[in-house]
Amino acid sequence: MIIEDIWFDLKDGRRALLRSPREEDIPGTLDYLVRSAGETEFILRYPEECGRYTPELERAVFERKNASPTEAMLMCLVDGRVVGNCDIAVLPHIKARHRATVAIALLQEYWGLGIGTRMFRELIGIAEGFPQVTQLELDFIEGNDRARRLYEKMGFRIAGVHPDAFRFRDGSLHNEYLMIRKMNR
Fold first, then answer.
1. Which has the closest alpha carbon to 139: 171, 105, 108?
2. Could you tell me the CA-to-CA distances from 6 to 15, 18, 74, 122, 180 in Å, in that order?
3. Is it the case that residue 39 has pLDDT exceeding 80?
4. Number of neighbouring beta carbons within 10 Å of residue 45
5. C-beta separation of 106 from 84 below 8 A
6. Which domains does the chain carry?
7. 11, 41, 97, 118: least CB-packed within 10 angstroms?
8. pTM recorded for the entire structure
């Protein structure tokens, strides 16, 4: 699904752009994936695992998301630089088509500027365009309190836990929580 350009003001006065991914975003996306993976333990991958991301793979992901009637990806650019992204995907199976998953990530230096809130507003707006979708779902790792506060602000509530789902490099185990946001239908 193609999303047209959405310009908005950041809390620091700069302008940000949300839009569907484009070919010219590939190098910035590859850099963003590695950088974001090294900034926090709360992203699924470590930086050294990002080697599997290639320009060809990202091109294929962009093309699939842009061509899909039930998926969308939004890139966030500030000063022409990829600083974050988010996506939404309606589950493909008949029994689960009332559900859509959402995901979001942002470079740490852009936290607290209103980007995450704006990305969620856009994802919710996209979901409202899918009449069959009655709930949005996401997962977060225990200890990611900043993200949890954002998700709760956007109407998500904890619905389940996967105990000890992640083992950090220091050996500590962390739960993964499922959060759901019911759509007002």
1. 105
2. 10, 5, 10, 9, 26
3. yes
4. 14
5. yes
6. 6-182 (3.40.630.30)
7. 11
8. 0.90
